[in-house]
Amino acid sequence: MTTLKAKDYRSGIEPVWCTGCGDFGVLKGLTQALSDLEIVPERLAVISGIGCSSRLPGYTKSYAFNSIHGRALPIATGLKLARPDITTIVVGGDGDGFSIGLGHLPHAIRRNPDLTYAVLDNGIYGLTKGQASPTTEVDFKQERGLAGPDERPLNPVLLVLSSGCGYVARTHAGNLPHLRETLREAIRYSGFAFVHVLAGCVTYQTPSYAEQIYQRCDLLPADYDPTDLIRAMEVARGPRFQLGVIFRRDPGVAPRMGEMEGQAEGGVWPPVTQPLGQEPPSDVEFPGG
Ligand code: SF4
């Protein structure tokens, strides 16, 4: 098989993101990671909700679903349940994932499907023209006169750690080699992997804000132990954005969705294994159906 290059994972649709948007970096890093892993587009799905970053599936050569606001995780979970052989990546923004879609996150984590969820966090609602999102900093809201000026921002990494997520990493859209490696290792992880991607919005943030976020980033030290949950929580609560694998649980410790005892024999939900685009077999009975 000829190894595909990063450009081979582009769909041919030109992104409509603003020039300089951090989402370009994520598209590039993701396609590089897919090339590294030699995942063929026929065995790949990229799923999103709504928002600027949620346009990303349209720009990748894969099965893709730019779905409804905040619902990417349940859709991807259903896909993974039906087609465990498809590498499934979920992308979206901080508004989509931590506001309307937040209720789905801890449930996806506890079900532990083999998904990679990358949240492109720019701390703003870009698509709807600059409202405060759940991760917008207090100072920025007060300076801009945005709604909720006294509401503290949500801490995504602390949230997923406390929900029991087995793989938690953070990277920055402006650090392409780090982004590529982080996404590659998250996709490799066998279970639910969360990647917090700091990504700038050049239109509704300011260059000084983006610079301030970048200056708050450090790489985790070489001797950092990602199996130490207490240490990971300290990192999450710290004032700086530490980049790298913050927490990694042995994937053998927690069962993955679809692989619990009895399920493989069809006891809970039989996997649907027909090729995409064909009618499901008539003898499959779904719960409640
Ligand atoms: Fe990117 Fe912001 Fe433009 Fe949206 S509005 S495409 S997040 S720069």
Commentary on this structure:
This protein has one domain: Thiamin diphosphate (ThDP)-binding fold, Pyr/PP domains (Rossmann fold), CATH 3.40.50. Helices cover 30% and strands 16% of the residues. The chain has helices at 23-37, 72-82, 94-100, 104-111, 138-144, 156-162, 176-188, 207-215, 229-237, and strands at 44-48, 63-66, 87-93, 115-121, 167-172, 193-198, 217-219, 241-248. Strands 2-1-3-4-6-5-8-7 form an eight-stranded mixed β-sheet, with helices on both faces. The protein is globular. 42% of the residues are buried. The model is unreliable at 264-268 (pLDDT under 50). Residues 17-18, 21, 23, 52, 122, 126-127, 201-204 line the site of iron/sulfur cluster.
Give a topology summary.
Elements: H1 23-37, E1 44-48, E2 63-66, H2 72-82, E3 87-93, H3 94-100, H4 104-111, E4 115-121, H5 138-144, H6 156-162, E5 167-172, H7 176-188, E6 193-198, H8 207-215, E7 217-219, H9 229-237, E8 241-248
Parallel strand pairs: 1-2, 1-3, 3-4, 4-6, 5-6, 7-8
Antiparallel strand pairs: 5-8
Helix pairs in contact: 1-7, 6-9
The structure holds iron/sulfur cluster.
Index terms:
single chain; 289 residues; alpha/beta; Rossmann fold; 9 helices; binds iron/sulfur cluster
User: Which structural class matches the secondary elements?
Assistant: alpha/beta
Morphology: globular
Uncertain residue ranges:
264-268
What ligand species are in this complex?
Answer: iron/sulfur cluster
Overall average residue pLDDT: 91
Q: Please give the CATH architecture.
A: 3-Layer(aba) Sandwich
- What gyration radius follows from the Cα positions, in whole Å? 19 Å
What percent of the residues sit in helical stretches (DSSP H or I)?
25-40%
Count the DSSP helices. Answer: 9
**What is the CATH C-level name?**
Alpha Beta
**CATH homologous superfamily classification:** Thiamin diphosphate (ThDP)-binding fold, Pyr/PP domains
First-last Cα distance: 42 Å
- Which series of helices and strands comes N to C? HEEHEHHEHHEHEHEHE
Main β-sheet description: 8 strands, mixed
| Number of E-type strands | 8
Task: State which percent range the strand residues make up.
Answer: 15-25%
What is the total domain count?
Answer: 1
Strand order of the largest sheet: 2-1-3-4-6-5-8-7
CATH-derived topology: Rossmann fold
